[in-house]
């Protein structure tokens, strides 16, 4: 009886140790698989400005005239109003505009000839750069000098900046050409630069 109890006490630790060795000590570690990567959609940033719509505004500028066969300075201040419409195609903005320009003391120093007004029908093509719109412009013009009228053409560049959805400010330079003005032999060229402000409808 005493020998049986002693044998049991010796065997018990061996059984327990063998159980632990089999259960966990010699088993391979289980590694969880890494999570699959998640695709993230790209963030598209809108320019925030759609140039499509009608507008009307005012301009204030300066002009210089070069007339064949006429001596003396021929320059002065210009002011006027314009109405137009733009259509935003994405990167390109197309537009049409009508403008009436008056003058203040736009008189030749030596001859007394005076530029009374200029009417312009204009087409514009610009690049949509968000709140900025740089553009090229061209069209036909009618000038009145001392009551005589004649038609010519013009071309130039400009830029508009959208201060808000309702208001736009800008600057524009145009070169005008009137060949054989009013049936005469002389040509007239005119350069104008103006600051503009417009209300967008």
From TrEMBL:
It is found in: Membrane. Keywords: Membrane, Signal. Gene3D superfamilies: 2.40.160.20. Its main location: membrane. Residues 1-23 form the signal peptide. It holds the Pfam family OMP_b-brl. Residues 46-201 form the Outer membrane protein beta-barrel domain. SUPFAM superfamilies: OMPA-like. GO terms for cellular component: membrane. Belongs to the Omp25/RopB family. This is Opacity protein-like surface antigen.
